[in-house]
Amino acid sequence: MKDVHVGVIGLGNVGSGTLAILAANADQIALKLGFRLHVAAVCSRSINTKPIPGIPDGALRTHDWREVVAHPQVDIVVELVGGTTVAAEIIAGAIANGKSIVTANKELMALQGAEIWDRAIRANINLAMEASVAGGIPIHAVLREGISGDRIVALAGILNGTSNYILTEMERRGESFDKVLAEAQSLGYAEADPSADVDGYDARSKLALLSALAFGERITPSDIFVEGIRRITAQDFDYAHQLGHTIRLVCSARQTERGLILSVRPALIPQSTILAGVKGAYNAVWVKGQFGADTFYYGRGAGPNPTGVAVVSDLMRVAREIRGGSPDRVSPFAHERLGEYQPVSITLQYRPYYLRFRVDDRPGIIAELAGILASKQIGLEAVLQLPCDTKHDLPFVITVEPTSELAIREAVEKMSRLSFLKEPPLALPMEPPL
Ligand SMILES: NC(=O)c1ccc[n+]([C@@H]2O[C@H](COP(=O)([O-])OP(=O)(O)OC[C@H]3O[C@@H](n4cnc5c(N)ncnc54)[C@H](OP(=O)(O)O)[C@@H]3O)[C@@H](O)[C@H]2O)c1
After folding, report:
1. Annotated catalytic, 99?
2. Predicted confidence (pLDDT) per residue in 178-210, tens digit
3. Which of 206, 288, 376, 422 is catalytic?
4. How far, in Å, is the centroid of ligand 1 from the Cα of 62?
5. How many CB atoms lie within 10 A of CB 371?
6. Predicted model pTM
7. Residue 385 contacts by C-beta under 8 Å, 6 or more apart in sequence?
8. Distance between CA 298 and CA 286 in Å, rounded?
């Protein structure tokens, strides 16, 4: 059978991992496919100054991506540039030239995936995006094929490795957020501008994409409630442990009677649950189906090799579809058939909550806080206070019975005005066992 030719645009972390795997595994890939995958062209801005191993002799090397998408030999364009501007142009260029596409771009696919997929189908080309969510975990294949016969009712995941690394290091060593973040930056685990990771935006794109595939609804990432991990302290882990819980940045999507509620936020989860065991830079996705019940997927969320495996596996699938002549040209974004997503406000969600206060201690504090909770019909569950050296910045925790997010927000708003508080209360939902 005729070989398939590939053009790789973007030779950073994922691009270099992809080239290395294609080179090291070339023979095995050929045996599995029955034909060879050839890299015919590669592109990055600094192609002439940065040494990149794995580029085969004879491949076109260029800093102009247009040369790759127009290359007559290239069957599949691999977009590994990232972002939503040049990447969108590359994908449009590939479609215009009748080339199939493999991308790792969660941001672009979360924003425009449905439209891009529709254009690809009309142009009779193939598209694959496994690497865009949870790097090394083949979760797209799971949702699109493995459990697509089920009706998904809930999904929860740890989808940002940097945040999970920071949280689990804070938990393990009792260090502050700032200290662990600085270490992660010096080790290259976190970006100089860590906002996309620690403020939850990267995870939000991934949740939007996974939810679109799982629930078949069109989801706008900015409709998803997002809260980052900057306010979590080592003491929060001590309190969470006292309650039999830990803290993770949880991406959650749940079907309710009113519709789908989506959120990315730090939450207490029971230590006994499988998600609580996800540590360091690992990712995990738990999915609950109406018929098949629970399934769980775990693996490396990022990195040149795990993500490179996802890209190479996508290349093999698309190449097989091209050569097999039975392309898989049905969009996994099924919203046109299943309906549009109506954002359901997180304020309607009911949960028990963990409220952590830092106070300048004086008599009557608990009574004042309890009074505000009572005024919002919120039932107090427990008060916890671990030993502390100072009375002037004293942390303690109140847990409350299940209540609406709206009631908790109103209570926190009212409490924030109390003069003895050193900062507004931190309110974290306590998620049910998965
Ligand atoms: N890193 C991960 O582990 C991971 C995991 C899952 C998904 N992803 C996704 O994979 C994609 C790539 O991520 P990455 O971490 O590999 O990024 P990266 O290390 O920053 O690499 C980006 C590459 O794109 C090239 N590039 C940027 N603009 C270009 C342009 N206008 N023309 C040609 N080349 C251009 C850069 O060239 P120069 O270096 O020469 O500037 C670089 O080679 C992103 O969508 C990301 O979200 C990454």
Report:
1. no
2. 999 999 999 888 888 999 999 999 999 999 999
3. 206
4. 15
5. 11
6. 0.94
7. 394, 395, 396, 397
8. 9
